[in-house]
Fold:
Amino acid sequence: KAQPTKKPISDGVSSSVDTTHTAKLLTTDYPWIINHDHSKQKEIADWLTMEIRDFVSYISPSKEEIKERNDTIGRIRDAVNHFWNDANLHVFGSYATDLYLPGSDIDCVIISEKGDKDSRSSLYALANFLKKRGLATDIEVIAKARVPIIKFIDPRSKIHIDVSFERINGLEAAKLIREWLNDTPGLREITLIVKQFLHARRLNNVHTGGLGGFSIICLVFSFLQMHPRIISNEIDPMENLGVLLVEFFELYGKNFGYDDIAITTANGYPIYLPKSDWKGLQQLRSSFSLAIQDPGDATNNISRGSFNLRDIKKAFAGAFDLLTNRCFELDTASFKERIGKSVLGNVIKYRGKQRDFKDE
Amino acid sequence: SQCPHKWKKVYCTLCNSKRHARDRCPNIWRVYLLRDDSSQQQDDNNEKKQKLPIERIYCYNCGVNGHFGDDCPERRSSRVPNEDGSAFSGENLKEDMKREYFDKLDKYLQKRNNSYYGNDYDYNYGQNYTQ
Ligand SMILES: [Zn+2]
Ligand SMILES: [Zn+2]
Structure:
């Protein structure tokens, strides 16, 4: 059987050439280090921590962008309320948890008192209404799917919107994730880095076997909540993002026993459980597959679609090697040689405008 | 360069490991910025030693509670080698927790060995019986 061939990933290769290149190349590839030079840090791990913080603040939306998104949702919500007076529009997904990359779609769901808005005719009626009001272009109605949705583009902001109907599980997940974020320092930062890392390798799309947003959050949550230095309260994760990112890649790229182990958060905090002890675990394509129990439905494996685990694990292992090699290289470099260098840039690149980020 | 004993020369002067050279020592990057001692000392006065959070310790290799994956007695599931050890090891616990952790681990390994030989005996017995 023919498998689509993957494009080779060029990220990280530049580490061997950038000694001879000018800062111009670096600043276009790693814009978060402009005016943020940390090359004088004694420990490379601290340098990486600071770069992670810079990266996160670099990709975080500006006040104007936040307002634009809120205004967009406000206009659609008003229209929905006008069209169906028993229905309301809610936001979930990465937008509701503040874990979106620039250019992400906004996930919304319409919930009504009658609970009848997921019919084929309702979907088309709403689509026409939004079109007539000038609130939607490029409309797609996907009525036959397991989860029927309308997709469109908001003409003013150009933001892509997905609307689903009468399903509360996304809202419940978003509420839970917000609690996890409150209780787990570093969860937001490492999740955003891993999301962008997988996005650049086209491994974050569940339709092609990649890791979805909720699965990524669960992996980071589980990693942080079980880390020996964190459970013994020895470190503040926010002060140790660099070493923790490398250790995240170490765990899921090298050591995690995907064949035998599932992750569950049924107790409120994450633990492992042998797959054989998970009653109701759906049949998996192969034993080498990720199993994460849905906090809202103990029979559901939220990562069942991530069938391309082999490439995901390989990418994580590669990131571990790239980051640690970069640390070894910079450890012996002189302070003069270090100026303008990026540690994080070995696994994450940023090209073009912020709009080029997309969270699928 | 074809010398078969070349591996003997690999030695890390930073952590005394024979598995890597000094310039590739994990201690170069596995560096933690610890919390200020002040808050810990207050805790120490209150309850002397912090309790081992055993309910949070799970094995990435076999999924069992009570030990970390690096200390797992079962066959390694991942095919990627773990030569230098990882973050998920009893060695990475706070000093005052290590003793309790490794005591518990010893007991677990002993119990596991006993039941292992027990099963082995039953197995042989069954075999002899059918023969
Ligand atoms: Zn060493
Ligand atoms: Zn184990």
